[in-house]
Amino acid sequence: MTIIALPTMGGGGINSNVSPRFGRCQSFTFVTVEDGEIQKVKTVPNSAANAMGGAGIQAAQIVGNNGATEVICGFLGPNASQGLSSLNLKIYQIPNQQLTVKQAIDMYLKGELQEISQANVGAHYGMGGGGRGMGGGMGRRRF
Amino acid sequence: MAKPPIITVTGGKGGTGKTLIAVNLTTMFKNEGKKVLLIDGDVENPNTNLLLGLELKNKTPVMFFKPVIIKEKCSKCGLCAQNCATNALLWVKDSYPIPFLSLCSGCKLCYKICPEDAIKEDKKILGWIYEAQKDNIDLLVGELKPSEARSASVVEALLEKLNTTLENEPEKYDVVILDTAPGAHCDVELLLGQADKIIPVTEPTKFGKLDLERIIQLIKLLNKDYKAIVNRSSLLGFKDEFLQELAEQNIEILGDIPLDDEIVQSYCQGIPLMDDSGKFDTNGAGYQAFLKIFDNLKIWMEDHKMQEVKK
User: Fold this and answer.
1) pTM check: above 0.80
2) Is A55 in contact with B81 (Cβ distance < 8 A)?
3) Is the ipTM of this complex over 0.85?
4) Could you say which of A57, A140, A142 has the minimum Cβ distance to residue B87?
5) Of A91, B18, B205, B309, whose CB has the highest number of CB atoms within 10 Å?
6) Nearest residue of chain B to residue A68 (CA atoms)
7) B177-226 confidence digits (pLDDT tens)
């Protein structure tokens, strides 16, 4: 039995879209897979979505606390990546296109997802207003 | 006993000549026999020593709190991670919390609230403070360790040193000059907060004006007294228009400094223009401009003193 965590849009669930952002996704969907079949789906809101900083760490914590051992995601920032690695989770990256949780899990089961070991974008990627773009403003940390 | 006046040289925009002006004001005070403390608070790019032609000495590390989890004592309760405001501790049920030092603000809350005393207060080097000395000038320079983010803590360490000196030996210096980094962020704010007088340095360009307006917003928030200096004022003939614009916004200036090859030479050689080196023409445009600014500064400081006495 494997529990896979996916960052999702809205409330999450098997038919919701995978969120391209990890640390600041709206929810996580946890899919339990056994013998190539989906056994169980659980959703958890992402309380880190609006964190001032360190959202990736907090999100990794939510993933870890819900028993996941593998993660499927789009973009992954440096904090999230370090957080997930320190929990020894396997990380798979979906291709750069909109997928539902179901579609992503199907690709995973067919072995079509690429495993990654480190961040694929910089901190606060995708925080810009409007569409997907480099987030401004918060990159430089000053306190 | 009277503490020395503190003048902060700032400016918003990078490369306007903040350090050039801080160093030459320092030099002119020294020329008058005054004992001056100059502090370079641009901790990400400290270079005042180069302009003064001084070698830095007495390198002292600036330490920063670093939490260390003592596994033998830790009950894995997660209280530390749940209360960490910057999410610098990652904790998953039944495992030890993992510190992420780059996110740690150094608040020590984890250390204080741990019910098992399982967090040890360790230190990491955040940067360094250097000293240098020449004639009547004492120089303090802060440097942030490359890759570290908490530059304000190095500035705080510089100010702590300043305030300790002012407490213990209030008459050691006749004047203190603080040189800030560009920008209007917390490093700069700390140095502005200490000032009796603030001199924002700008240049007659759109960038110069925009950044000057931003730094003045910050100065006004701090309720401080300021007068600007327009450096490179002869640049492409924008001077009159620029001064007019400042006047319209009621931004007073101490003076302006035209482009002058001798300033460039002094900069490249690491000899302050206003030093009695005999290398520079005392009738030169830059030299004369600095003298005029210094006179205006002294008048401004006298006015300030009078107001203080009236109070």
Assistant:
1) no
2) no
3) no
4) A57
5) B18
6) B92
7) 999 999 999 999 999 999 999 999 999 999 999 999 999 999 999 999 99
